[in-house]
Amino acid sequence: MIQRIQTLYLLAAAVATAVTIWLPLATTDEPMSSSALFADSQFTATDHPALVGLLGLASLASLITIFLYRNRPLQLRLSVVSMLATILALIIAMALYLNEARSLTDLNTKEGWGIALPVLAIVLWAMAQRRIRKDEALVRAMDRLR
Fold first, then answer.
1. What is the pTM of this model?
2. Closest-CA residue to 75 (of 86, 66, 84)
3. I want to staple 121 with a disulfide (CB 3.0 to 4.6 A). Which of 16, 21, 43, 137 is the partner?
4. Helical (H) or strand (E) element with 42
5. Cα-flanking dihedrals φ and ψ of residue 110, to 5°?
6. Is-contact 27 109, C-beta < 8 A?
C-alpha cells in the first residue's frame, strides 16, 4: 500500500539521487582551465553523461517502485537495481575524481553534499527493502492462516 513506511524511504531515496545530479560532488577555490572536471570550479554529475544517466535511472526506478506495492518481489528487484545504479555512479565519480587528481598536482578540493546523498539513498533503499520483505512475510503468514 502507498501509505507504508517503505514508500517514504523510496521517495526520500528518489529525491536524494535526483538532487545529487545538480549538487557539487567536489569544489575547488577557483576554476581550473586545464581540468575537464573543475573548469567551472565544481565537479557535478552533469560533467559526465554516465553519472547523469545512472542517477536518473536510480531515481526513476525508485519512483516506479513506489507504485508497485501489489508486486513486492518486483519492488525488491527494482530497489536493488536502483541501489546498484547508484553504487556504480559513485564508483565512476570516484574514478573520474582520482584520475583528475593524478593528472593535476595542485588540485585542492573540498567534498560537497553531492557525495553524501547517494550514500544516504543506499541506506534508505536498504531500509525499504527490509520493510518490503517484512510485508511479504506478513502476507505469506496471512495466506497460511486462510
1. 0.88
2. 66
3. 16
4. strand 42-44
5. -125, 140
6. yes
C-alpha cell at 86: 547508484
Cα gap 37→12, rounded to integer Å: 28
List, in order, residues 6 or more apart from 130 with CB less than 8 Å away: none
Q: pLDDT digit string (tens) for 95-115?
A: 998 888 777 766 778 888 888
The domain locations on the chain are: 5-140
C-alpha cell at 85: 545504479
pLDDT exceeds 80 at position 65? yes
DSSP class of 37: S
Query: Of the candidates 121, 140, 141, which has an alpha carbon nearest to the alpha carbon of residue 11?
Result: 121
Length of the chain: 146
